[in-house]
Design goal:
Blueprint lengths: L1 E7 L27 H6 L12 E5 L3 H10 L6 E5 L5 H11 L5 E6 L3 E2 L2 H16 L3 E6 L10 E8 L7 E8 L4 H10 L2 E11 H11 L1 H12 L2 E3 L2 E3 L2 H5 L6 H6 L5 E6 L3 E2 L4 H7 L8 E3 L2 E4 L5 E4 L4 E4 L4 E5 L4 E5 L6 H10 L10 E4 L2 E9 L2 E8 L7 E3 L3 E9 L2 E5 L2 E5 L4 E4 L5 E4 L6 E9 L8 E4 L11
Parallel strand pairs: 1-2, 1-4, 2-3, 3-11, 6-12, 14-16, 15-17, 16-18
Antiparallel strand pairs: 4-9, 5-13, 6-9, 7-8, 7-9, 8-12, 10-11, 18-19, 20-21, 21-22, 22-29, 23-30, 24-27, 24-29, 25-26, 25-28
């Protein structure tokens, strides 16, 4: 049995402003109609002997991950919540500890693109035989150009393997090279891009990890033993998991073990680690441009231009990235997009919300969008999904006015329950317990006007919540 282990803990800062810390790139539809997470979950469709996926994600993303899987009718074996990020090796250890020892774990980052799933499935079939024989398998991507943004794998001697593709022992892993070194690797022919995808028997991986990083295995055992069930999620023990050393699967095991094997494959892979990578894998027009949204390009070449909210007109550009969102615009040289992470770091240092949030913020019951804010007031558009209900709550520092613009609202306020239809409104005084519910079959939309001395999202005291968040601040 092959169990896909989908790692969905990344933040994708190099794809800012589209990817934000609380809405990262794996949850975005960057290449096609489905999100990267959804594409990953479907990657082994119609492949025999594959079980339900195990998803490991940041607890802040849990409802978004669950909803995206539900939307494509994928029922995960579990959604495991990491209280803190600890890189890929502890995540793989948690999966191995949960699985039967003979199960084959296929570790897949949730934010990669594979345009030829059939080629990838052939590689998995070859890797499965090796993993069953206690090899630790990684998948090396056949390089097409001297890429400096990826690590490399040097192939060793050939291994006898069943399947459509050859396999080799891993001679060594190589860090991201400079341009000249990358060109030499390409000319050599013995190097592959390190994809960060792995396949191994659960017991074999745990045995090797226990040899090289026993303290990591022990911390993961404690985190899993004290884990708590939270609705449809498994929440790892925070203290135990926080004590776990952070390291990647590569460093913790693969660079030290004698069992590492690599299967070369060319499945149209990209980790979409930057805007230039997205430009490279996209469908470009005759001038080399990718244009999305309301864009008017004049004499522009080899550029990526995305407009989400308004007309973007460009003149005489070459090798340029422009990404327009509701609250931020990125303009960058296509050859310097790795430096976008510097922008995000500055935003975080200055405490600006644009590093973490979009103007539209998603919640398990729907979403809200910040429309306007000033001294002692804030205006939001709130959308509540059919049948969804917000927590019973109160605020210490703000009052709220609600105006229904679409659908029907059931309101609980100060112990009274009443209905509001379109164009009707109500006032929620400061300190009053209240609740909002959509009893209808269409989305409920309302305008909320907040007023008070403090309007932060942490001014919420919950008394009851359908999503297990009470009494914590809004998550």
């Amino acid at each position: 049995m092959i169990i896909p282990v989908i790692l969905s803990g990344g933040s994708g800062t190099r794809l800012w402003p589209l990817s934000r810390e609380l809405y990262p790139k794996q949850l975005l539809a960057l290449a096609g109609d489905a999100t990267l997470l959804q594409q990953t979950a479907r990657r082994l469709e119609h492949f025999d002997g594959v079980g339900a996926p195990l998803v490991i994600c940041n607890e802040e993303h849990r409802f978004l991950v669950a909803e995206q899987l539900r939307a494509i009718d994928v029922r995960p074996a579990a959604i495991v919540l990491e209280p803190v990020g600890r890189n890929t090796a502890p995540a793989a250890a948690i999966a191995a500890l949960k699985a039967d020892g003979d199960a084959l774990l296929l570790v897949l980052p949730a934010d990669h693109l594979i345009r030829d799933p059939a080629a990838f499935q052939r590689a998995v079939a070859t890797g499965a035989g090796l993993a069953a024989a206690d090899h630790l398998v990684t998948f090396g991507i056949t390089p097409h150009h001297p890429e400096t943004g990826y690590g490399y794998i040097r192939k060793g001697e050939k291994i006898a393997a069943d399947g459509a593709l050859p396999a080799f022992r891993v001679e060594r892993f190589v860090e991201k090279p400079d341009r000249a070194t990358a060109e030499a690797y390409l000319a050599d022919g013995g190097y592959l891009w390190n994809s960060g995808m792995f396949l191994f028997k659960a017991a074999t991986f745990l045995a090797e990890l226990d040899r090289f990083r026993p303290e990591m295995v022990e911390a993961c055992r404690r985190a899993l033993a004290s884990a708590a069930t939270d609705l449809d999620f498994l929440r790892l023990d925070k203290a135990a998991f926080t004590s776990c050393p952070a390291d990647s699967i590569d460093y913790a095991v693969f660079e030290q073990t004698a069992r590492a094997a690599v299967v070369p494959v060319d499945p149209g892979w990209s980790d979409i680690g930057s805007w230039s990578a997205l430009w490279e894998v996209g469908d470009r027009d005759e001038l080399g441009n990718i244009v999305k949204g309301d864009v008017l390009p004049v004499d522009c070449h080899d550029s990526y231009i995305l407009a989400e909210n308004r007309l973007v007109a460009t003149v005489g550009l070459r090798d340029t990235i422009i990404v327009e969102t509701a609250d931020a615009v990125l303009v960058a040289d296509r050859h310097r997009v790795q430096d976008v992470k510097t922008v995000v770091n500055r935003l975080k240092k200055e405490g600006r919300p644009e590093a973490n949030l979009h103007r539209r913020v998603y919640r398990p019951w729907g979403n809200y969008e910040n429309l306007s804010a000033g001294d002692r007031y804030q205006v939001k558009r709130i959308t509540v999904n059919p049948g969804a209900i917000l927590s019973l709550q109160m605020h210490h520092h703000r009052a709220e006015h609600w105006v229904v613009v679409k659908g029907t609202a059931r309101i609980t306020s100060d112990g009274k329950v009443f209905m509001l239809s379109e164009n009707q409104s109500t006032y929620i005084p400061l300190g009053v317990q209240h609740r909002l519910e959509n009893p209808g079959v269409i989305p409920l939309e309302l305008i909320e006007v907040q007023s008070g001395s403090y309007l932060g999202e942490d001014d919420i005291v919950r008394f009851d919540d359908n999503y297990g968040r009470a009494p914590a601040p809004e998550q």
